[in-house]
Each structure stands twice: as structure tokens, then as C-alpha cells.
Amino acid sequence: MNSMHFTDEELRALLSNPTPDSDLTAKAAAIRKSVYGNKVFIRGLIEFTNYCKNDCYYCGIRAGQRNVSRYRLTSEEILDCCRQGYDLGFRTFVLQGGEDLWWNDDRLSALVASIKDLHPDCAVTLSVGERSRESYQILFDAGADRYLLRHETADTCHYGALHPGNLTLENRMRCLHDLKDIGYQTGCGFMVGSPGQTVDHLIRDLRFIEEFQPHMVGIGPFLPAAGTPFACEPAGSTDLTVKLLSIIRLMHPEVLLPATTALGTAEADGRERGILAGANVIMPNLSPPEVREKYMLYNNKIATGDEAAESVASLRRSMEKIGYEVVTDRGDYLDHK
Ligand code: 5AD
Question: What sign results for the dihedral spanned by CA atoms 129, 130, 132, 136?
Fold first, then answer.
């Protein structure tokens, strides 16, 4: 599938004006349909620990947050989530957590191996932050298939405005390159409207994605989180997020592109809008209902007490309403080139 090229000027014109562009949306929806039809892949998200050693200024579970009650699911609890998810049709499990040192390579690789052992037809995605190349290799050898690590911003200065000094864009990039090199289907991404972000930063993000050629791209609006240094910053625009989803789809026809929880939090029909604009993945929450409100990356994050079964049923209905179909499929990256 031919990818579309945008000049910097074209991108600047599109991104300087967040109002929806129906022509762009229609083109992105058409290219998404020609690659993935009307299929929507679902990933079962298991937020398995909210302990984190990092202090990212935007994040509601940063180490410095006092009002967060910390939890760590046991391997048994996590395997239970997978068992439940499997029965609901999930064939990908995403283990997401803060950078929690308790989950060392031995423990995490044993967990990955058990999931793959119990569900050999499923993909395991990890989203546990920056680790050494050796660690990524051990987890890959244990059976992990994919890894999500948003780059957050491709601009060094802006990276420094979002993170404390011990976290660097250089190391983030090292991680992303190691992951891809090892053989993971790799995802990067960024928040839209994070404090200090300019249109030029967004263009750099898109150029980085073009160069890196990830298999997945996660983007969502920045949403302020109480108790963080950015608590009083304005939220990012959902219109601009939706527009970026279309641009990313056009630049990367095959990419796996979620309509994220942040988009669904910012606007009641945000995820539907995302799918209609070119996204093709949704990541419902499979975490036990009692821990969901403790994984508050930002204010008002969707954390209904809904059982996973109810939320999948209502997701299926809302996708059908807009002409899309939730499928039971690993939903691997398809390289049509
Ligand atoms: N608003 C939106 N997204 C956030 N994330 C973290 N904090 C926020 C926030 N306040 C995103 C980051 C991270 C992902 C797991 O969640 O981009 O990579």
C-alpha cells in the first residue's frame, strides 16, 4: 500500500488548525479499509502494577505522587485476567505498568512464559518502560511478541521539559532501537497537547515515526493529572488528536493504531471518532475492577466498575453502530509491501 508523503508546509497547515478536515478523514478511513477492512482489533489491557520509580511531570502515578494507593497484581491474578479475557475473545494481552523494580527479569519472564504456555495462540505485549537491551532480550526469549514504549516527544528540549533530568530522549531512543532490533513488533507514540508542545514538535514526531517505521503508534490527548506539576495545564485537543490519527494512517497504511483510552476519556465518543478517522485498535481494560481507579494516569480516566464482559459487549455494539466489527484475532502487523 502506498504511503502518503506530506511536506513540512502541508503538515504545518494541517496541524495549525485543529478543526476537523472531512476530506482528510475520508482518505484515512478509505486507506484503513483497504488494508484492514472494517475489522477492529482488541487488546486486553492489564495494568498490573502502579509502582513506578520515575517522576515524569505529566503522569498521575509518578513516584512523587502521595495520594496514590500502590498495588501490584500477583501472577495468579494476572493469569486470571488472561483466562477471563481469552473467553471474551481477546488474543492479545498487554501487560502495562509503571517502572516497578520488583518485576525483575526473572519474575517478568516467568510471567510471560506462563501466559504463552496457557495461551499459545495469543500475543503478549509489554509496556513496562525503559530497560536494558539484555532485559528486553530475556523477555523476548520468554515469548513476549510486542512492546509499547511511547517516545513522548522527539525533541530533546521538549523531552527535558516533560521529564526529570535522569530520563533522556537518548536513552528512550536507544530502547526503541533495541526493541525493534531484537524482533519485537514495536510501538512508539506521544501525547497531543502536552505542555510546551508546538506544531514544529509535532512535525518532528511525525518525521521520527517515518524514519523509525514502528509497527504501532499510540497517541492520545494530554490530560492533566491532579497532584502532578502539570495539574493546572490545559488538556490537549481531541480534534487535533483525531486529525493526527488520520495523518498517521495516511503516512503508514499498515500501522496498528489504537483509539486510546485518553481519547475516550476526553470525549464520550472519542474512540468511535478515532476509529472513523483511521484507527484500527481498541484496548479495553481487563484489570480487576477494584484496582482500576488506582491506575489514574490522568484525571477522570475511564475506570468504570464494568466487568470486562460487559465492556466488551458494549464496545462490540458501539463499533457495529458505526459500521465496524470487533474481531477475535491476534491482529499482527500486516506488511503488504
Ligand atoms: N495524559 C495523557 N496521557 C498520559 N500518559 C501518561 N500520563 C498522561 C497524561 N497525564 C501516557 C504517556 C505514557 C502512557 C502509558 O500514558 O504517553 O507513555
Answer: positive
* Residue 6 CB–ligand 1 contact under 6 Å: no
In a domain, 336, yes or no: no
Q: In what order do the strands lie in the sheet with 281-282?
A: 281-282, 39-42, 325-327
pLDDT digits (tens, 9 = 90+) for 102-119: 999 999 999 999 999 999
Quote the number of domains for the chain: 1
- In terms of residue numbers, what domain contains 69? 8-328
Please indicate, yes or no, if residue 333 is contained in any of the structural domains.
no
State which of 48, 59, 192 you would mutate to test the pocket of ligand 1, scoring each by most atoms of that ligand within 8 A of its C-beta: 59
> What CATH number is associated with residue 74?
3.20.20.70
* Cβ of residue 225 lying under 6 Å from some atom of ligand 1: yes
Q: What is the per-residue pLDDT across 49-93, written as a single tens digit (0 to 9) for each?
A: 999 999 999 999 999 999 999 999 999 999 999 999 999 999 999
- Tell me if 58 CB under 6 Å of ligand 1: yes
Whether the pTM exceeds 0.85: the reply is: yes
Domain-embedded: residue 334: no
Burial class (CB in 10 A: 0-12, 13-18, 19+), 199: middle
Phi and psi of 189, rounded to 5°? Answer: 155, 180
259 occurs within a structural domain? yes
User: What is the atom index within ligand 1 of the atom nearest the CA of 189?
Assistant: 17
